[in-house]
Amino acid sequence: MVAAEDAGKNETDVAEKLDIEPDMVVQEIGWDEDVDDTVREAIEQRCGGELLDEDADEVVDVVLLWWRDEDGDLTDTLLDIMTPLAEEGVIWVMTPKTGREGHVEPSDIAEAAATSNLAQTSNLSVGDEWTGTRLAYRKPAKTKR
What we know:
Layout: H1 4-17, E1 26-29, H2 37-47, E2 60-66, H3 74-81, E3 85-96, H4 106-115, E4 118-126, E5 130-137
Parallel strand pairs: 1-2, 2-3
Antiparallel strand pairs: 3-5, 4-5
Helix pairs in contact: 1-2, 3-4
């Protein structure tokens, strides 16, 4: 049996793995009944505030995008959610794990990221059902002098 404090620590660990820091502004897009509420709660606890919904118009540090295969065009969605994203901000694309309903092929995420001028920087197992793919703005190539 897991002690209550250990469970809280495990939830916080998920937020830390997602690079969530205190006072970050996090927007959540694509919420549905299948999302992992422990991940959401851990992020809220770590950043110290509620997740902003899809209609928020603030500049955000992190976008948490719950994405399933049947959700539409990922490239279009990425381009839309980049608008409020801070210059150093990141997008976590949360997709169902392989074999789960709604699974998205990693190559589809990579293609949508490249088309949106984003770089895929890491992947992370998040809970039993979800995988997170971290996307960030591409850094300009350094010119040689």
